[in-house]
Each structure stands twice: as structure tokens, then as C-alpha cells.
Design a protein that fits this description.
Largest sheet of chain A: 8 strands, mixed
Largest interface: A-B, 52 and 52 residues
Mean pLDDT of chain A: 96
Oligomer: homodimer
Helix content of chain A: 25-40%
Structural class of chain A: alpha/beta
Amino acid sequence: MHNSVGIVSPINIRFNEPLKLTSGQFLKYYELTVETYGILNEKRNNGVLICHALNGSHHVAGISSADLDDIGWWDNMVGPGKPVDTNKFFVIGINNLGSCFGSTGPASINPDTNLPWGADFPMLAIEDWVNAQARVADYFGIKCFAAVMGGSLGGMQALSWAINCTDRVLNCIVIASTPRLSAQNIAFNEVSRRAIISDPDFHGGNYYAKNTKPSRGLSVARMIAHITYLSDNDMARKFGRTQCKPSENGSYRYDYNIEFEVESYLRYQGEKFSRYFDANTYLLITRALDYFDPSRSTNGDLRLALLPAKANFLVLSFSTDWRFPPARSREIVKALLKNGNSISYVELDAPYGHDAFLLNDSRYHAIIRGYYNRIAQELNLN
Amino acid sequence: MHNSVGIVSPINIRFNEPLKLTSGQFLKYYELTVETYGILNEKRNNGVLICHALNGSHHVAGISSADLDDIGWWDNMVGPGKPVDTNKFFVIGINNLGSCFGSTGPASINPDTNLPWGADFPMLAIEDWVNAQARVADYFGIKCFAAVMGGSLGGMQALSWAINCTDRVLNCIVIASTPRLSAQNIAFNEVSRRAIISDPDFHGGNYYAKNTKPSRGLSVARMIAHITYLSDNDMARKFGRTQCKPSENGSYRYDYNIEFEVESYLRYQGEKFSRYFDANTYLLITRALDYFDPSRSTNGDLRLALLPAKANFLVLSFSTDWRFPPARSREIVKALLKNGNSISYVELDAPYGHDAFLLNDSRYHAIIRGYYNRIAQELNLN
């Protein structure tokens, strides 16, 4: 396929050395599912790590060998000749620890019980993901990534990489992200979790054994989240007050079935999500989001928290993103400027809300492309 | 009590003439619960109708005789010497038809079955509320209200009064409102309804007979709505990332119990609401909100839709209200200006989001007071 990494298959890597978690708990061993695109060069200095957002996975680019309709979630960004050019870079997509697309998570077997972990799966912090991922870098013999990059939660992971694996990140690319959640962000997460936990099919997190799952709660959670991914104007433009299959005289139905297009869209998104995503993973990831706050150990001083970071930074935000508005990115930028990091910041005027980071916008892609071209030049990757 | 209307008791008014509803259905008879404050003058021209928002009631001001801790929801606004001065005006608070504080609603007895209406209670439109309320005006012998006033949904009712009862509204006061819901507004309503309807205790709306109620779903619905009532900054100011009872070393709990103050606040609000509010009423009112669109009959032209309105208008919006932002109020204002109505518009710079319309802000109250003083002068009520 032109301009694509083609058909790709994931690999599972098992790590037998126990992983100490931020919570104090241990994982005796874990597996991470990864995909790679492009070729690791001899110097092993052309590695790029892509960190995924809440519902993402290792399947960043190309066509899944297991399902030829399944295109990677950032396929417009990663591939031969694309902004993250796999002719030059060796790109790794990793499914986060605790997620539900192959890596060890709540649905995996707990070695102590031989049953699914369920509610007993340990809570994870973003720093735990970074530590788990660092072993993937070791596995590939990558001492330092040319870039670690992500949007939204993925951007927070990239930031955490730059702070916690100081010498292993040459460039850190943080898109549509934030240095910590606001009270409103936490509030939306909490409502989503309540919807899941109060679903009678949740069974305290141990629903696997009951052969059921809290689909209704997870669907509501996804609907809530989805509203925060789109801007008010974008929703108005896409759906407005358009009715779904109105009756002949256009009158309302006067019931609680689908009346407006926006309802149809949200229900579809919610139901689709509840079929493929694991509710325990949803809880775990939203909690990790809540907890992330590098400045917690520096009395709220983000500059001090970012002081260990040596990487060069590209920070990008989108004007209509009300989940993680540009002001949150600017907090990161100000702190890094004070610390003397090399930093580029771009605030893109785009109407698509938070989801803009996933979309194909030529200005956005030109910026990423330009930044990676400079990396390639500096590392003589051409 | 100083500056209060004192202890008040509601009255129920029964209307035996059938009410034709916008949906085409009929209510054979209905009751409305009202409270009144102040004295209706001989000319019966000092009447003020207060329209409530989603969770409001007829209990606008004073102390409830049934519960001395129950102060009216707009007690800071209505009373002797207050902005809506009950020494001059005769103020009526009405519980909307379909609500759950005494007026006929889904929990009332269906005369055809002698069982609670439940899912069979007819859907209502805002215009139906206005028509039902007009009979209350008749009951008191009020041909024309000195003012009809409301915030949020109450503002939409006031607007509907001005359009549909052209000669019965001298002044229309529309606060923190909108001429119609946006796609995002509808989206939040729809998610709330899904949370309720997918609660197994909902039983298709006929939960009264099962002696249960969909408390979990209603609680989630309220939590979602509550987020939209506060501004992002206000939440940050009130709660920030403050932990609830942190452990001695301040570390996180690493679980899904309450960790942050904002979670505690939202759960409390959700649970409280689910105890006193009826889920069917919540569905009914959010649907009436979705449906309201005076410009539906004029091909989206709000100016034409407002053409029948003869009232003088005061329109107020709050800068940080992201549920019904100032731009929505300005749509109303622009249409009314084109129509040549007398209109005052104030956009208040206030940090409290949508909820600002309920709060005691001296600039806000001074504007309302001034407006009512002018009404009193014009009507020689002093």
C-alpha cells in the first residue's frame, strides 16, 4: 500500500524481572505488546517511541494482520514519507501496562491465583508505564530515543520520560497535553468511573468470572469522555440540531429514543467502545491520569519538577481544545524556558477540539515533519 | 426573619379543564403547586412570575413551613427590600407541570389506571408549561404580569411566555439562558438520560410499582450536570487538586475511593439529588430543554420567531458560563434589537460559571433591583 507501513503484526515481549510500582506494589512479571515500523540502524539512535492516549494501543500505523480493516490510530502521522518518516526512523508503538490490547492488565491471569486479576490488579502511575517501557528500549538495545512522542495522555507519558529517563530522550514531543489534570478533568473522570462502578454488572471489578461486563456503565463513560474530545463549535458544525430520520412533517417523536443526530453519534460511540474496551482498564487509566503531577514532589513548582529534563522539546496545543487547553501547554513551556531547555511551541488555531491531535491537518503535520527532519539531520539519518 | 418573606406554605391549584399538549396528547386535569409572596394589588398589575430551572420548585423564597431548614432557592433575590421587592410586587413561584414537588407529574396517579403514570406520563414542551401556568395567572385574576423572570431553563420559559402570551408579559427577564440548546448541550442531556435509562432499577420508567428507583443513574446524571454548572476556573479555585483526608505522608491511596475534594463534592451532590428528585422528571425536563426552539417554526430565523413578543426585555449573561455562554444570550438580544423591542443587555464578568445566576453578586443584584425599580415607577407601585 502506497505511503503505508503495510501489514503489521504485534509482538509480545515478556519481562521476568519484577517491576516495582509507584504504589509500592510489585508485578512479578509482565508482558508488553508492541509493533515496530522501519529499521533500527546500527548506531541504534533512530528509535522513536509513540505513547498512546486512553483508548489507544500499540497499533499506531499500518494494517493489522489480524484484521485488514484495522488501520493504526496514528497512521496519518507515521509511515514512509509521513511526518514521522519510517524510512529514517525506527518507530515503536507500545500498548501500556494495564491496558487491554495484549499487554498485562486486569483481564490477564494473576499468577498467585490463576484467575483474572480483576479488582486485584495493582494501580498504576504514568511513571510505572515509563519504567515498564524503558525495558522495551533495553530489549531493542536503544540507549537513547531520537524522540518520545504522544498526544493527550501520551503527551504526559512523553513528559514523564523526559523527567525520569533523562539520558534516554533526545527530543520530547508533547501534543494536546497538560502537566497535570485540573479539578474539572478529574471531575469528568470521576463521573465516568461512577458510571462503571455503579453498574451492577461490574461486580466490584471481578466481572470476568461472572461472564459479564459493565457495558452500560462503560458506554456512558465513553459518551461523557467523547463530549470532552470535541469542541462546542465542532459539535455544532457536525451535528447542530439536525434530527435523525424525522417524521414526514418533521415533528419531534416525543420520546427518549434517538431524536437528534448527536444522540445517535454518541450512542454509537459508547456502544462500540463498550464492546472492545475493558472497564477495569478504563478505571485504571483514568486514575493514572488523575494522579499524574510531576510537581507534587516539588511543592507545586513545575519548573523544579522539570529541571532533570535534558531533552529538546516540541510542545503543540490546539486553540479549541477545552479538555487540555493551550494554557496548560503554556505552563510546560514557561517552565522549560526558565530551565533553559531548547523548546519550540506551537498553538494551532484548529476547530476540532482535543481530537485535533489525531486528525490530518496540513499545518500540524508540516510542523511535526519539519521537527523530525531536523532530528534526522542532526543525527545524520538521511 | 429580617429581610425574608418568612415562613411560607405552598398551595395546590387544580385545573379540571383538559390541557392540550404540544405532542398532541391531553392531560384530563392537572394540579400545580405554587407559593406566593407579597400582596396582589387592586389593579392586579404587580404580579411577577418566577420560572424555575431543572431542579427548582415553587419554593422560591422564605422558609418552608414543612421544613424550617428549607430556604427558597432564590431567597437572595426575592423578598422585602430585595431586588425583586415583595413590598411592591406579588411574586408567584410555580412548580412546573411534570416536576416532582407537588405538581402533577410522572409520579402522580394516572386517572385512567389508578396507578402512577411512570413511563406513560406525556412528554412536555416548554410551551406546555407556559400554557399550564397561564391558567394560574387566570386563577389570580392577573391579566398581565409586571414581569416574568427566570434563569437557565427558567429564562427559556420566560422567553416562551413573551412569545406565546404576548399581551400578558410587560417585562421579560432572561438570565443565563439560550434561545435553543446546542449540540453539546443536547449531548450532555443525552448522556444523563442514558445513565438513568440504563440503570436496571429504572424498569422502563415504571419503577414506582417496583418500590425502587434508579438512584445510581440519577446520581451520575446529576454529577455530569453539576460539572457543566461550574466554570473550570471556579472548580480549580474551589477544589484544585486538593486531596481528601490524605494519609500522613500525603501519598495517594491508589484506589477508586474518594481521593480528591472534587470527587467528594460531586458524589455528595449526586447522592443528595438522587434522594429528593424523581428520575422520570429528570428525563422529561431534559427532553423539554432539547426540544425548545422557537425558531423551528420560522426556518431557524430567531428574529421572526421573536416577532410576536411585545415585552420589554432584560437579558443577562455571565462571562464564565460555558453551559449557556454569553454568545447565546447575544443571539436573543440581536433578534430583539432588530425587532425594535426595548431591551437591556448585561454581560457580567463573574467567575462562577452557569450557577452565577443563583448567587449573591452585588453588581448582578443591583441590575435586577434597578430594573424592578423602573417597573415599579412605571406602574406607580410605590
